[in-house]
Amino acid sequence: MVSHPHDLPMPVPATAAGREGLDALLRTPRKAVVALDFDGTLADIVADPDQARAHPDAVPALARLAPRVAAVAVLTGRPAGVAVRYGGFAGVPGLEHLVVLGHYGAERWDAVSGLVHAPAEHPGVAAVRAELPGFLDAIGAWRGTWIEEKGRALAVHTRRAENPEAAFEALREPLAELAARHGLMVEPGRAVLELRPPGMDKGVALNAFLEERGAEAVLYAGDDLGDLAAFAAVEKRRAEGLPGLLVCSGSAEVPELASRADLVLPGPGAVAAFLARLADALPEADADPA
Questions:
Q1: Quick one: 32 exposed, middle or buried, by C-beta within 10 A (0-12, 13-18, 19+)?
Q2: Could you say which of 25, 67, 85, 222 has the lowest number of CB atoms within 10 Å?
């Protein structure tokens, strides 16, 4: 007999700080913010990023959880509108106040309005967009790599290369030099190097959102190197007295993140089950929070 996610016991964080964060969320959910990465956390990693979709259990779990906490935000490197489409977040009962912070917080989609707010594109992105295909060809790195257009950023993927890790390492320095020439930075990930404007990361975006919502507890879940900045933001907040729980989705490819997590779950299906279990443990939205 297969257990329903709601029947599973609540996972116990491995650290005292994580247990304190979970206890605070359970004790005062209406003051808690739940923030989650998209790819690898709410959606399984796939060979073609355009085919990524939220795990079937993720949106139902979020829809049950969101009305019971202060706020739920999806924090992603993708354009906000793309994450909304691939996540299937728009028009879902229970997610009427969901916020999607795209491009590491440079873009914002609010379910209340259904609109995306974004600044003008960094001029370096347009310059790199024009130069990147020829640049990769000239350094002999075109075969097996491919470029993902992300609107306000560009990503070079090596997952399809004959030796993904070797291609990744060979491209790091040349792409960093290219990015620097145009005022951009390189964000490494799982078999991907993203060229994007500096000054915004998931830590900056998460801090701003916590301030906006007056959070008294936070849960952040992520899976990749880009989530380290959000982990660092939560760790700093914890040192200042704000309880927080850090969740890593998967651990094999990004041990740097898993080693700093309070709770490691084996992928988006397990994250969705955890969110559902968390929703079960909290009072209904129309109930007295006391």
A1: buried
A2: 85
Residues of 158-187 as b/e, b for ≥16 C-beta within 10 angstroms? bbebeebeebbebbeebbbebbeebebbbb
**pLDDT at residue 287 above 60?**
no
What is d(CA 108, CA 232) in angstroms, rounded to the nearest whole number? 22
CA–CA dist 208, 187 (Å, integer):
21
Q: What are phi and psi of 30, to 5 degrees?
A: -75, -5
List the structure tokens of 191: 């078999």
- Looking at residue 141, its pLDDT comes to 60
Over residues 149-183, the pLDDT tens digits come to 888 899 999 988 888 888 999 999 999 999 999 99
Strand boundaries in the chain, DSSP class E = 32-36, 71-75, 99-102, 107-110, 115-117, 146-149, 154-157, 185-189, 192-196, 217-222, 244-249, 263-265
- CA-based nearest residue to 261, from 249, 274, 247: 247
Catalytic residue among 7, 23, 37, 224: 37
**23 among known catalytic residues:** no
Total residue count of the chain as it appears in this document:
290
Number of Cβ within a 10 Å radius of residue 194: 22
Q: How far apart are CA 204 and CA 227, in angstroms?
A: 11
Does the model's pTM come out above 0.90? Answer: no
CB atoms within 10 A of CB 132: 16
- Which tens digit of pLDDT belongs to each residue from 232-282? 999 999 999 999 999 999 877 789 999 999 999 999 999 999 999 999 999
